[in-house]
Structures are given as structure tokens and as C-alpha cells.
Amino acid sequence: MDADLKSLELKLSGLISLCSDLRNENAQLRLDLNATQSDAALLKANMASASERIEALMESLP
After folding, report:
1. Could you give the CA distance from residue 28 to residue 6 in angstroms, rounded to a whole number?
2. Main-chain phi, psi angles of 61, to 5 degrees
3. Rounded-to-integer distance, Cα 32 and Cα 24, Å
4. Alpha-carbon distance values, 30 to 11, 18, 21, 27 (Å)
5. What is the DSSP string of the chain?
6. pLDDT band for position 1 (cuts 50, 70, 90)
7. How far apart, in Å, do the first and last CA atoms of the chain sit?
8. Tens digit of pLDDT for each residue in 7-52?
């Protein structure tokens, strides 16, 4: 009986540890995703600006 309880305790402890690790990883992934989305938005704005400048240059050509 004690061996069964000890085994269950170890398994539960491992599960709790894994859950904690996954929560930490999930939090980091959310931060990484937010940073990547911000970078993508900035790149999109830069591309739109560059496109507008190219169009303006093309219109000024004879």
C-alpha cells in the first residue's frame, strides 16, 4: 500500500512539475508571438511606405 501511494505521489509530483513547465513555456510563447506580430506590423507599414515612395517616383518620371 505504501509503495502504491509513493508511486502515485511521484507521478503526481511529475505531473505538477510538467504542468508548471508548460505554463511557463506557454507564457514565453505568448510573449514571442506578440513580439513577432509587432515586428510583422512594422514590416508591413515599412513596405506600404516604400511602395508609396516608389509609386511617387514612377509618377515623376518623364
Report:
1. 33
2. -70, 145
3. 12
4. 28, 18, 14, 5
5. -HHHHHHHHHHHHHHHHHHHHHHHHHHHHHHHHHHHHHHHHHHHHHHHHHHHHHHHHHHH--
6. confident
7. 92
8. 999 999 999 999 999 999 999 999 999 999 999 999 999 999 999 9
Residue with cell 513555456: 25
CA dist 21 to 5, 26, 53, Å? Answer: 24, 9, 48
pLDDT given at position 62: 83
